[in-house]
Structures are given as C-alpha cells and as structure tokens.
Amino acid sequence: MSQQVIRIATRKSPLAMWQAEHIQARLEALHPELTVELVPMSTQGDKILDTPLAKIGGKGLFVKELELAMSEGRADIAVHSMKDVPMVLPKGFALPVICERHAPTDAFVSNKYASFDDLPQGAILGTSSLRRELQARANRPDLDVRSLRGNIQTRMGKMDAGEYDAILLATSGLQRMELDERIRHEMTPEMSLPAVGQGALGIETREGDAEIIKLLEPLKHEDTWNTVRAERAMNCHLEGGCQVPIGGYAVLVDNGENIHLRALVGEPDGTVLLRAEKTGPVSDPEALGVAVAEMLIEQGAKEILDKVYNRT
Ligand SMILES: NCc1[nH]cc(CCC(=O)O)c1CC(=O)O
C-alpha cells in the first residue's frame, strides 16, 4: 500500500507553523494524491522562557517532543530550522533532506538606529544567542548586551516596548514572518558569522522510513546539503551539540568544485574570539568541517567550550 497521508509534527510558534505549512504546501504540490496534515505541539524549549537556552539543555529541547510523536506514530516527519537541530540525532531518526537555503545572515533591528555601527556607547542590545552576543561584544565592548528569549514576535514586542535599543535576529526568520521591513541592516558574515545551518530547513524522519523518504527526495537541495554538512561536521567535531558560542558558514566556490568554510568560537563576554577558515573539495564536506574544527582546537577552542559548560 502506498503512502496516502504524511503527518508533520511541529512546534506551535508562528515561525515553526510557517515552516511546517511551507513544507506541507510543497509536498502537496509535488504529490497531488497525498494528504499532508500538521500535528502542532508545545515543547519544553517553548515553555521555559526565563532561562538562557544554554543552561536548560540547548537545542535538543525543541526537537525531543517532536521525535517522541514520530516514534509513537502520532506523526511521520518533523520540519526544523537546521540551526535548531542537534549535531547528533537520537538512534532511530534520520535527516534525509535539507532544503535550499536563502538568507543565512543575522539582521539588525531597531527603532532608533540605522545599523550596528550607529549604536551609541552603552546602548542596550538584545540577543538570544551566545554566538551573536560574543561577536557583538568583541566588536563593541562598550555595548550593554542582554539576553532576549521568546519567539520572534515576543522579541520584537520587547524591543518596541523600549526594553532594548536594538536586537539581533535571523534574517530568514524575519522574512518568513513577513517582518523583513523591520530590518534596518543585514549583518555581514564578517560582523556576525551565522549559526551552523542558519536559514536552511531540514526534514527529520524515522530511520529507514523508505517510502516517506522517497516522497521527500525532491525537496533536497544538493548545494545546501553539502555546505551545511561541512558546517555541522565542524560543530560536531568541536562539541556534541547544544547551544554553544560557535559560528559556522560555508559557501560553494570555484564553480561549485570546492567549499569555503569559516568558523569561530569564543568567550560569550567577547574577550576571546578564535577564527578559522579553509577551502576543501565539495566531495568531502565532513573532512573540511573536521579540519576547520582542528584549527580552532589548536587555538584553544576546547578550553573555551569546557568553560561555557562549567565542566572544568
Ligand atoms: N532559535 C530560534 C530560531 N530558530 C530558527 C530561527 C530563524 C530561522 C533560521 O535560522 O532558519 C530562529 C529565530 C532567530 O534566531 O532569530
């Protein structure tokens, strides 16, 4: 019997719902005989909003409940921002598809200032990630960088209420929410190196679910797959996963023959920022990721990450 229904497990946040609906629409367009349903649910990561993510278990919090629904047969696939997908998936799950990446950058949003460089001394900058925090502090030690959690709409609301002079968010998330007119300035990768996988959607399935994986196949984007694999191999070699002060961004170069990967690790307070970059053949993204991770480790990346986790 062939597959007639695919159920997508999704978080209930507006961004997650948009992403699930986007994949739902693409799958229905590809396979007119197929019914695609959404199974919305709340996750721990959405419920606990008062603590920085790094302290409560990191990225895994957003995906665990979705995986439980898949393993219990309440859903078949989960759509994720690749940025939120842990580097190692639990046994029994696979990530057969990474869709085309559009905007990988971070965005500067403010009601008062036109760009990051225009922020006056001591301005209050809100961000939800150690990676953005570390780069902002390294560039501008004088800024008052404060933690900012919640979904995109909540974060914008806090800024509009005057709690922050400016905030940094993912460009892709703002575009999906049709909030991109609020972007005052797109941060270059030099100013704010993106998170591993930022801007790309991934689809998780049960391992070996061949029939469903075949239906998803046309959504797979080869170039994004290769570059994001290099980024994830770098992160994975440095650290098992979770929310960490790591940036990684790969692009194809030399007519698609090679991948250029840039990465950074640092102290969240911005006092130490290690960078590495390297070009390697597109035929082996993992080797490039591992090589760049080794370049960071030689500079002391492990010690920094250990400190962030209070493991030393
Ligand atoms: N952590 C939340 C999250 N997960 C994915 C995105 C943006 C979309 C993407 O990177 O694909 C966001 C919002 C943000 O970081 O501002």
UniProtKB/TrEMBL annotation:
Its EC number is 2.5.1.61. Binds 1 dipyrromethane group covalently. One of its GO terms (molecular function) is hydroxymethylbilane synthase activity. GO terms for cellular component: cytoplasm. Its cofactor is dipyrromethane. Residues 226-297 form the Porphobilinogen deaminase C-terminal domain. It is an enzyme of class 2 (transferase). GO terms for biological process: protoporphyrinogen IX biosynthetic process. The keyword Transferase applies. Signal peptide: none annotated. The modification S-(dipyrrolylmethanemethyl)cysteine is found at residue 242. Residues 6-213 form the Porphobilinogen deaminase N-terminal domain. It comes from the Bacteria. Pathway: Porphyrin-containing compound metabolism; protoporphyrin-IX biosynthesis; coproporphyrinogen-III from 5-aminolevulinate: step 2/4. The porphobilinogen subunits are added to the dipyrromethane group. This is Porphobilinogen deaminase. It comes from Oceanospirillum linum. The lineage of its organism: Bacteria, Pseudomonadati, Pseudomonadota, Gammaproteobacteria, Oceanospirillales.
